[in-house]
Amino acid sequence: MALQQLQKAAVVIRENGSFRFEIRQTPIPSIQPWEILVKLSATSICGTDIAMAAGYVGPTCDILGHEGVGRVVRIGSGVDPSTVKVGDRIGIAWLRDICGNCPCCAVPGGEVRCVEQLNSGRKHDGTLQEYCTVPNRYVLKLPDELNIPDPVIAPILCAGVTAYSALKAGAAVPGEWAAISGAGGGVGALGIQYAKAMGYRVIAIDVGPTKEGFCLEQGAEVYCDALDTNLKDTVRGFTSGAMAKAVVVCAGSGAAYRSAFDLVAYFGTIVCVGIPPPDELISAHPLQLIDNGIRLIGSAVGTRTDTLEALEFVRRGMVNPAIHLSTLDDLNDISGKVASTIGKYVIQFEKFSGEHEQE
User: Fold this and answer.
1) Is 139 a member of any domain?
2) End-to-end alpha carbon distance in the chain
3) Which of 43, 39, 38 is nearest to 139 (CA)?
4) Which of 16, 145, 258, 293 has its CA at a distance of 20 to 30 angstroms from the CA of residue 206?
5) Which pTM does this prediction carry?
6) 3-state secondary structure of 50
7) Which CATH number belongs to the domain containing residue 84 in this structure?
8) What's the rounded Cα separation, in Å, for the pair 116 and 119?
């Protein structure tokens, strides 16, 4: 059965210092011989999508989005048919393609820092459309036995795997304390769940009392207000002086990073995830690291292997992302609520119906 020629897509329009999404009928993307075409069933909305739409992160494509799930409907003529077939379930994330040859790609797990990487919505049209193309050499094929609904998978492809890989980088031992700064946000909330599932005792840190109940529901053992002037002593009391062996900073705040140095344990790790404005710098004397044996490390999203590991926690029921189902037509309404809404907005498309066409 041949595919239809047009699809529904959300095109970002920037004017008068603001932005909006215009829902249009656009041509279904054509594929190169080395690509596959995926019909999306769901895509969740990331805070980065809104920042990109607002123009805060430089040039982008007109179609954003990078947390999509769908099924293969077309295969390029140069794709080895033994690697992927029509009907396979595919995840489409921030990292859309890598070169495989640079110094980063040569390091195990270094693909997330590939110097030639193509990102969804930045250099390649994203998932806020019904169909997407994916290069076969970097396809994320989701196993048949992964019995998770597509709308639940979508948030794990960015927020979930970002939190999970950051906790892995934190290198704490089960039973030790892990602090999540910015715990009430999309990445932070999933970080709480992953940290608990990985065996850590979790300290959730965010601003104000309204986030406390939510963070405790996600699995945090204690909640601390980031504006507490005695935050260091508060954490010291909760941990019986041990402090946090891993501090994962998901908040995009220079103040959150500065306070992390007060909360980390001897020989602990501060993991950088949140991105503050350019003028909010970290200020620390090397002796803080030298005397206390502290590691300071950056963590960026995750590899395809990290993603599959992160999804396994969901399959086992140990991590359950909070989602709000919506449609592409609602995008303008929900785009202004992403930062303040607890949980993730997930846009649903029509389900895969088996249509396909071989290139």
Assistant:
1) yes
2) 13
3) 38
4) 293
5) 0.93
6) helix
7) 3.90.180.10
8) 10
